[in-house]
Amino acid sequence: MKTMNFLVTGVGGQGALLASGILADVGVKAGYDVKKSEVHGMAQRGGSVTSTVRWGEKVYSPLIGQGEADYLLALEKLEALRYVGMLRPGGIAVVGDLGIPPLSVSSGNDVYPGDEEVRRVLSEVTDDYHFIPSIRLAEELGNARAHNVVLLGALSTFIEDVPPEVWLQSIAERVPKKFVELNKRAFQAGREARSSR
Amino acid sequence: MKVLLSGNEAVARGAYESGVRVAAAYPGTPSTEILETLAQYDEVYSEWAPNEKVALDVAIGAAYAGSRSMAVMKHVGLNVAADAFFYASMTGLEAGLVVVSADDPFMHSSQNEQDNRRYAKFARVPCLEPSDSQEAKDLVGVALDISEQFDSPVLLRLTTRISHSDTLVELGERQVEEPTELPEYRIDRVKYVMVPGNARRRHPVIEERIEKLKEFAETFPYNKVEMGDTSLGIVTDGVAYQYAREVFPEASFLKLGMTYPLPPEMIRDFASKVDRLIVIEELDPFIEEEIRLMGIAVEGKNIFPMIGEFNPQIVRQSAIKAGLLPPSAAMEVKQPELETPLPLRPPILCPGCPHRGVFLMTKKLKMVVNGDIGCYTLAFLPPLSALHTCGCMGASIGQAHGVSKAGIAQKHAAVIGDSTFFHTGLPALLNVAYNKSDTVVIILDNRTTAMTGHQQHPGTGMTLKGEPTKAVEFEDVARAFGIDRVHTVDPYNLKEVEGALRDCLEAEGPAVIVSRRECALLPQARKLWMSLRVNEERCNGCGLCFEVGCPAIVKSEQLDAKTGRAKARIDPLLCTGCEICAQVCARKAILFREEMIKEGESA
Questions:
Q1: Cβ atoms within 10 A of the Cβ of B445, count?
Q2: CATH code: domain of residue A143
Q3: Distance from B153 to chain A by nearest Cα, in Å?
Q4: Tell me: the pLDDT tens digits for B230-273?
Q5: Which of A53, A103, A104 to probe the B interface (max B CBs under 10 A)?
Q6: Size of interface A-B (CB pairs under 8 A)
Q7: Both B180 and B234 in a single domain?
């Protein structure tokens, strides 16, 4: 069992922590030792959020350093750029095709990086990055909030030794009951979006 | 069965399993979730106390009464509770008492980085430190056993990373039978009345206790030697152990589950078996100094930082720099070059935050504002830049009073949140009244402890367990203290806030303004959310509304034809409809709720 390191990033309120919770649980269900770490506190609404999830035979540190993430799951493009240095060169980045401008951008003092710049920066670390139209796919299913699970679906295609059923079971256990079916479909949509590329 | 639990959830589970009957705390990151989790167990009485000192006195009282008990706080909470911590060490207890302190290396959500292992030594109390959630759960029970065996409180020291990391935990059952009859209170005046005569008898007892604990530590199973390559011996504790194991997979380890007092023979023996002895510990060189006092050669803070939180990268790079690892041990990292630095996302007052109305008006009146601990501290940031000090819980009122007594002509304000006011603002306001200062005290009553995630407090009329209780009124408190000038304002009404401030500034003597409006994120407030809209014909891009500092107000791509300035736009996903910006706009370009509703009806 080789250790797998995930870094989940996003903006407060986007559902990054639900995504990392599911990711940790999938690891447990697949028989790994698992550690997950995140920091709460301060007013996180609109702030940058990160969570580390590690699967392995035996995991010691709950944190990873730069260059140690095998997978970067970014729910937002700016947060993908902010943390792409955490990714192992050549690692896999799954990025939600969504930009949420911070206050300094919307007030006109800073500039949100354009898509060309986003691609250029990501490609300095890895060619294996994947933009997923997560919001659009979730909206098509009826609720944009399920975009985080769309991204988990896309991520799951890279982890071949864990079957989709395990992910679906964890999703069913962790999202509110009335949203289970929606999120199961969101997961499938994410898987298909990845494989159709 | 193994489940993923955060360190905080694990401590709560440990308290439940090991028979804690009474637990008290004041919310504080990173410790808050411990009591929130524990409150779900009916077998344990748990409460939010107004502050940590009260919480610890409550836990001590319960332990005097023969019940296993626990007090929980963040690291700076132990400063507040220190008086109680020290006397409890002197008296000992009738049943186990564990004091949980969650330290915050890197100050993720704190004003300092103090290392509370120092308190253990200071008060002659044993200190236990878990390195994951399983140990966090187990060490609660171990702490209670030690507490009872040695007649001493026990400090369980967590750090943010332990509190907020999820790791696998084996759950157990509650290990006690619930009592069938009420316990009797055992009276022992010599032990529990700390007058000088009795205290002088107790001091030698606690010094002897520490000597016995040293012997106990020699065979304490959570002090563990893991021998590997003997060229390097690493003494470590808490989460630092996890980083060290990762970075030095081959080395020999002495992992300390009890960091005060240390086991001298165990350390001496370990040191004799390794060529080079180093300590890897976050924050202070606490273990390192203790080992050096034993006359053993040791390194630590000459290699690893004393400031901030560790991670594997920091430990690895420090080790490479000191020659403990070859340069080839470094991870391959690609940190891409950026055209321009990435825009930051600093924490900000939320859209619809009622505090914003107060700070806009104190700023308009050019008031100097002594601040306190809570969400409102964020008013120090631009564009508001309206808060001028922040030191610790309850400091604002005493500071403003001191400024007044120092003879500064300008009347100062103190702003303090509702929960913080009950924590340590109460005696400070009493002082303002008693010693008669020209201080304006503004109580920002948003009906909850917002900063730590909406906990109940004595003003909310609800307990931790969700039971209704008496709600304290701030106005009644101020008047009972002898303050006659008391205003109540709605911070969503800027004129009302300004009027009250002007009245207080013009009058002599102490004044209190209660700014009452519930936190915009509370469920009942969310129900009233509606988005406002900018009338782009009226807006000329003057920018006054941008100075409100609301994330919902953004620069539109539309420019004013005359001035060329960007007009304002409101983000409908963020706006809550508080109308503060609508009141600030000089051209009435931002529609009020009523106008929005009318518009909707006519459409």
A1: 24
A2: 3.40.920.10
A3: 28
A4: 999 999 999 999 999 999 999 999 999 999 999 999 999 999 99
A5: A103
A6: 164
A7: no
A41 to chain B: which residues are within 8 Å by CB?
Answer: 29-30, 108-109, 452
Same-domain check for residues B510 and B538: no
Residues of A with Cβ-Cβ distance to B168 under 8 angstroms:
28, 33-34
Tell me the residue range of the domain where A62 lies: 4-195
Cα B256 to Cα A167, B80, B241: the distances in Å are 38, 28, 9
CATH of the domain at B360: 3.40.50.970
What residues in A contact B339, CB-CB < 8 Å?
Answer: 113, 117
Q: Which of B242, B346, B571 sits opposite A60 (nearest CB)?
A: B242
Confidence (pLDDT) at B278? 98
Contact A14, A49 (CB under 8 A): yes
User: How far is Cα B53 from Cα B38, in angstroms, rounded to an integer?
Assistant: 20
Q: Looking at the whole model, is its pTM more than 0.90?
A: yes
Please tell me the distance in Å from A40's CA to the nearest CA on chain B: 7
- Looking at the DSSP bridge assignments, the partners of residue A52 are A7, A37
Q: Which of B288-302, B504-518, B543-557 has the lowest mean pLDDT?
A: B543-557
pLDDT digits (tens, 9 = 90+) for B34-55: 999 999 999 999 999 999 999 9
Q: Which pair of structure tokens corresponds to residue B64?
A: 């005097």
Average pLDDT, whole number, for chain B?
96
Bridge partners, residue B260, by sequence: B127
Structure confidence at residue A101 (pLDDT) = 87
**Cβ <8 Å between A43 and B348:** yes
Quick one: pLDDT at residue A196? Answer: 64
* Phi, psi values for residue B38, rounded to 5°: -65, -30
| Interface contact flag, A84 B571, Cβ < 8 Å | no
Q: How large is the average pLDDT for residues B268-295?
A: 98
Q: Which residue of A has its CA nearest to B166?
A: A36
If asked whether residues B382 and B294 sit together in one domain, one would say no
Rounded CA gap, B505 and B507, in Å?
Answer: 6
**Whole-angstrom distance between the N-terminal and C-terminal Cα of chain B?**
60
Domain limits for position B91: 2-218
Contact B29 A25 (CB under 8 A): no
The residues of chain A scoring below 70 in pLDDT are 40-45, 196-197
Cβ atoms of B452 and A42 within 8 Å: the answer is no
Helical axes B82-91 vs B196-218, angle rounded to 10°: 80
Residue B48: alpha-carbon gap to chain centroid: 14
Give the length of chain A. Answer: 197
ipTM: 0.96
Query: CA of A109 to nearest chain B CA: how many angstroms apart?
Result: 9
Residue B114: how many CB atoms within 10 A of its CB? Answer: 18
Nearest to A158 by CA among A130, A136, A178, A127: A130
